[in-house]
Every structure is written in structure tokens, then in C-alpha cells.
Automatic annotation (TrEMBL), chains A, B:
Top-level taxonomic group: Bacteria
Annotated source species: Streptomyces lichenis
DNA-binding residue intervals: 40-59
Pfam families with a match to the protein in the record: TetR_N (PF00440)
Limits of the HTH tetR-type domain: 17-77
Keyword DNA-binding assigned: yes
Keywords (A to Z) from UniProt: DNA-binding
Protein name from the UniProt record: TetR/AcrR family transcriptional regulator
Coiled coil regions, renumbered to chain: none
InterPro entries: Homeodomain-like_sf, HTH-type_TetR-like_transc_reg, HTH_TetR
DNA-binding is among the record's keywords: yes
Amino acid sequence: MGVVTDPARGPKQDRSRATRQRLLEAAVSCLADRGWAGSTVAVVAERAGVSRGAAQHHFPTREDLFTAAVEYVAEERSHALRTLPVRTRPETVAALVDLYTGPLFRAALHLWVAASDEPQLRDRVTELEARVGRETHRIAVDLLAADESRPGVRETVQGLLDMARGLGLANLLTDDTARRERVVVEWGRIVEEALKR
Amino acid sequence: MGVVTDPARGPKQDRSRATRQRLLEAAVSCLADRGWAGSTVAVVAERAGVSRGAAQHHFPTREDLFTAAVEYVAEERSHALRTLPVRTRPETVAALVDLYTGPLFRAALHLWVAASDEPQLRDRVTELEARVGRETHRIAVDLLAADESRPGVRETVQGLLDMARGLGLANLLTDDTARRERVVVEWGRIVEEALKR
């Protein structure tokens, strides 16, 4: 009895879960590195060290795999953000902007742009984007201690997240870190002022 | 003598110029509608009503055509922005955001995302993006009457343009106009305050 398992879930289910997770992580890194055109179930299965049959068992279509992947990593990211220690507003602005400059944003961007041209992706990605966007907005409101019952506060937070998305885009082709850090310092102050009024 | 021409440029040069312009405009609308994968010189030539040979005479490679197209439309846009009548800062914020929500932004976005995966495009698009970005920044500083010698002003304008870019991205899959207009009203106020300090 060397293996301890959840009595409701045998080692087989645990393995299946681990395989699924490996596939999702490989799918995001593949999308970020190679774009939609270079991302197929076969390429991801190989990257994850999983057989193509096993990959197709978990995700019957390419669209299933890549929308699930972006959703999975967005959830991980939301969870990480929610469990950050309480911090100042300028620090929160910096943490929110960080969400949009890593491999997840690159992967999501490739998925959005592909979805704008491919009808079979469009509805799913639109729905996913709306859901992830609402969740990120809720987290931002909490972390910034923003009172949305006051006029303009909701739009202040929305514009901040739009700015974070634009900073992510500016980081796509070149390392924009130095410029971004200066913008984030100034906008940390601006958001602090705007929310105090 | 029914045709009046610039003495330095005969009717042949004028026709060549008009053909070039038709190709550039067709290239931008093709990139915006069909993405990089669906955009070839042949498809654009057909859309422009120009022979493939003539198209290749003007633009030997696909990369030549599409980078020239995005640059051409960006220049037209900068010119239009520069010749706007003087307006208030909140109106200027709205006009700047409008730059990022039309077909040019969609075309540029497809080109950026393709460039992030394709080495033969990457350097050219990076250089183009830097040039267009600097020009847009200069125009924004002028229109907003922003004094960049004061600390934080440069970053305030940069962050505003990042926000505009993020708002363009939010408009990619769905019509985000109603939400965007509310964000723009509020951020018009916030930028006005920030530049007054």
C-alpha cells in the first residue's frame, strides 16, 4: 500500500487528471510560441509527452483543447491574484498589469485573433473572454477596494484593465518592460487619485 | 489635351500611383477581414482589380505589400488627426481612442500577431510599430497640449495610448462601443485632471 489516494478517486482518475493538466499547459505554451496556425492537437500531445489517442480522449477537437487551455490558465491566474497579500493600490495596479504580459496573454491573444477569422472558434472565445473579463474585473474591484456605487468608479477600473491589455500588446514584439514600469508607476498614482475623489 | 497632369509626372505615373494606392487599401481591408493566413498578394490583387503581375511589380513580396499597407493607412490617419480642429482634452481622448477601433487597428493587429511567429516579418513590423507609435505619441502630446517637461506627463500620455490600444483589442470579437464610450468619458476627465496637476 505505497500509494495514498483520495477514496473517491482512484489512482487512475488522478493520472487522467494529471494528463489533462499536462495537455492544457502544453497547449498554452504552444499557442504562445507558435500561434494558432502552428497549434494542433498532435503538436500539443507530443509537447506534453501524451499519446495522440489520449489527447483526443480528453479533447475531441482542436477548439475544445485550446479554449479549455486558455480558461484553465486564466483560472489559475485569478486564483493566484485572489490569494495575494493585501497591498497598496499602486502595487495592485502593477500586479494587474503583470497579468497581461506573460505567456497566458500571448496565448489568449493568438486565440482571440484566430477567433476573429474562424467562425467555429468565434462564439466560444467570445463567451470565454466575457467570462474571464468579468472575473478579472471583480478581482480588480476587490483588490483596489473600489466602491462601484460611486459614479465613474466602474469605468475607472475598466479603463485600467483596458490599459493593462494594451500594455500586454505593446510587449508582444519587443521587451517593453522598462517603458511599462514607468507607465505603471505614473498610472498607479493616477488611479489612486481617481479612486480617492 | 483633355488630361491635365503634373509636368513632372505624366499620366502613366499617376496611373501607377493610383494602382499602388488601390493595392494598399485592398491589403488593409483583406488583412482586417481575413487575417494574415488568408492574405496573399494574389487575393489582394483580385480585390483591387489589378493584375497579379502589376501587383508584384509594385510589391515583390507579401511582406512588402502588407507592411507598406499598414504604414500607408497609419500615415493617412496621422494626417487626418493632425488636421482636426482644436478641441478640448476629453474630445481629444475620444478621437485618439477612435484611432484604435477601426479596420486599420484590426489589420495592424493581425500583422503584429503574425509577426510574433514569423521571423521574416518580425523585424520590419517591429520597426514599423516603433515609428508609428512615436508619431502617434507626438500627435497626442500636441493635441492634448501636454507639457512633457513636467514629471509624469510623458507616462500619462503613453498610458492613455496603451488604454486606447487595449480598447481596440476589446472591440475585436464583439461590438464594445457602448462600454467603450462610458470608459472614454470617465478617462477623459481623469486625464484632464492628471494633466492639470
